[in-house]
From TrEMBL, chain A:
Residues 1-21 form the signal peptide. This is Lipoprotein. Residues 125-150 are annotated as: Disordered. Residues 125-137 have a biased composition (Low complexity). It comes from the Bacteria. Keywords: Signal. InterPro entries: N2O_reductase_NosL. The keyword Phosphoprotein does not apply.
From TrEMBL, chain B:
Pfam families: NosD. Keywords: Repeat, Ubl conjugation pathway. This is Carbohydrate-binding/sugar hydrolysis domain-containing protein. Residues 47-194, 200-360 form the Carbohydrate-binding/sugar hydrolysis domain. PANTHER family: F-BOX ONLY PROTEIN, F-BOX ONLY PROTEIN 10. InterPro entries: Carb-bd_sugar_hydrolysis-dom, NosD_copper_fam, NosD_dom, Para_beta_helix_rpt-2, PbH1, Pectin_lyas_fold, Pectin_lyase_fold/virulence, SCF-Subunits/Alg-Epimerases. Pathway: Protein modification; protein ubiquitination.
Amino acid sequence: MTAPRTAVALLVLAACSRGPAGPAPLDTRAETCASCRMAVSDARFAAQLDAPSEEPRFFDDVGCLRDWLAAHPRLPRGAVAWVADHRTKAWARAARAAYAEAPAVETPMASHLLAFADAASRAADPAAAGARPLGPSEVFGPHGPPDGAP
Amino acid sequence: MASGAALLALVAAAGGVGDMASIQPGGLEGRPPPSEASPLQALVDAAAQGATVTIPAGTYRGDLIVDRPLRLTGVGRPRLVGSGQGSVVRIRAPDVTVEGLDVDGVGGGDLGRDSSGVHVAAPRATVRDVRIERSLFGVYLREAPGAVVERCVVHGIPGKDAGEKGSGIHVWNTEGFTLTGNDLSDVRDGLYIQSSSHGLIRGNAARDLRYGIHYMYSDDNVFEDNVFERSAAGGVLMHSRRIVFRRNQFLHNRGYASVGLLFKSCDDSLAEDNLIADNARGVFLEGSYRDVLRRNVVARSDVALVLFDSCGDVRVEGNAFLGNLAPLELVGRRTDTRLDGNYWSDHDAPDLDGDGVSDAPFVISSLFDHLRGNVLAADLVAQSPAAAALGAAERAFPVLRPIEAVDHRPLARRPALPDVPRPARPGRGADPAGLALALGTLAAGVAVLAGAGRGAGGRA
């Protein structure tokens, strides 16, 4: 009798400890930035933060995600940050993404931060030509963005 | 059994820690905790529905929730000083009126929770004659149909970047709102309208901020008789349809890449009788269709009209373009925009038959337009005398095939339209760095033209 209960509890534990299944789709007509409260209208600059059992938070600018994380250092276990690849608009894990600071590119909240799935995608984007390449820790601080770790 | 309970406790512990859950997306600020509540809360809580609650002069510290229909009237301008943790006045019941108050947000709160001077999340509220300072948002209308905000003053938080503060009046998911006679400064955007229709905005002033008025996904709106000045942009109309606006002034928006009036994915809209003057760029249209601009004055701008080839069936009719450095910048390789019956101050063809229309069409193009339309870096010299020199040189020695636009019936005489007011701030002196940049660019332009002229001569 004890063994099945333990198994069930372990299953529940495993389910709750996992991060979100993946990034949520972005509806540019409906979503509002969780930080600046403006429309998330341009998918090229978007980011999102997902946590188990919570609605996803969308951001209209990588800078908004950065600022929101700085203001809310205590996050639920399993929270994962995602950023849109500026070139493809595909979601990438923020902790593993490549970034560029491009003063010539107007981002929605003027952070001038572009995100990419990897360095190859960054190199292929004309918007990042001449921009300053950055890593996750340079954008989000030494601990980087949340990536599902406890 | 005991081990199972221990595991379940472990599960609960693992389920989540931190403060993120306390500010869920879509959450709404409710009743402030006693430690943050205003002493006026007891007065409100004791009032009968529909009552008038009079607030005498004085200073009241803490936040206030109004959760029943009533009229909250200040006498002698009482001052409500917020806790710094959230919105100072929170309207959560229909048919509430708040008037005659001074509200101090003390620079606190959280943008993500809509922290405002007055936050409305209920139908048919009226916010009247309220002066708000040091608040992240001034007045926030959140799903507040029928709201009226009139004669309010919002002076935001000086010294913060645009991303660190909210709008003067922020309208979200609100049908049928009215914003009149408000004065807004030192906020992110003066009037920000998102996913909200059938609003009327009239007689407001917004200055020294990012965008004076900003529409996003908001159809069927009207704004009239407003003044938007000294900002990154006067008006920004994006992802919206059927916006009608008249007799507004978009003035002195003079920063790098600033613009008086910007359309981006804004369709079927009408701009008439507006004054758009002394801006880096007058009117900017990108990805917009079937818009009509008529009887507007576009004056004293570096570029009067910036037109992307992603626009379609735009009509520019009966406007006056006065004293602009360049009349038009076409970005791309084509345009079907119809320019018809406008007055162009730099068109000098005669009107010998006296019908009021110049005898020759106005062909609008210049080398500088070509450069600006195809070389991003050319924007750097948009405000320099070198741009004028390049334009003059190109007219004398045409070396590039320009993209043309033609007004076939240009007006011969300037229509009777308002003058351009001078900036309210003191005049700007010569900027040594800007002067050096202009002279350098002038020299570079002369060198480019000389080289191009030699190249053209070699091919002849």
